[in-house]
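Case study 2.
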Amino acid sequence: MNAPRLGLLLDVDGPIASPVSRTIAIPSIVEDLVALAAEGIPVVFNTGRSDAFIRQEVVGPLLAGGLAAGGRVHAVCEKGAVWCSIGPQYEGGMGELTVAEDLALPRDYADEMRDLVRDEYADLVFFDETKRAMVSIEQRVEVPNATYLARQPEFDERAMAALERRGLGVRRLDDVRPDADGAVQWRIDPTIISTDVESDRSGKDMGAERSLELLAQDGELPLAWRTMGDSRSDYAMADWLHAQGHEVAHVDVRPSDGVPATPYPVLTAPDGVIHDEAGARFLADWRRTA
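Prediction:
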């Protein structure tokens, strides 16, 4: 088997699913993903989303769009904590799930966050019941994003305090990791539509490592990679691939946070196009260059 010309590691919220509707709102995204998979291009969704979300909002449309059996399509969910293969040959379109139980938050912490949302923040967010390892609190779709972002820091402080009260080490995503081994076990990661509480070992770099492990089981690794995301934390996919000696370019579909200096190319869409509109443009370009 010849090595594929390209491999895709794709964040879901932003480049694939609209951050407003939380669905794949642009039909060409499905069409191009199905066509790329049919060509033999490996496609891995490397996301913080749950497997239930991927099944409903990504796998369902792909199957309806004609995704064929035998494609090299996989999902790494919850930033490396849950993973599986995708295709019509599996019941419901997804193969057997693997869950890294050592990355799961304590059950009593999840229960406390659920109660906090119900009692004080139900007008703003909902507790994501589909997560198997991390805890995610997400903006209600009917709530304006500016309203959510104004109150998000208050919730994040309470989420952090609940971990500290249990004697568990925790940091914010943008904090420098302490030198002491074991000082931090958990991390608070605020996004533009949610707050994720997760293992400090998880991340898009772990997701990239899991992705290559999955692909090594079903064929040759690609000659080059494209990673795509909408936040600074998504650069970790390309960072990891580059550090392992792979040729990679990263697509930033929301570069307003600032494009960092990297040892690999960073691509952005022209004319200020962002989110899934930018993702759709790049997928179409990669399909045309077959």
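The chain has two domains: 7-100+203-288, 102-199.
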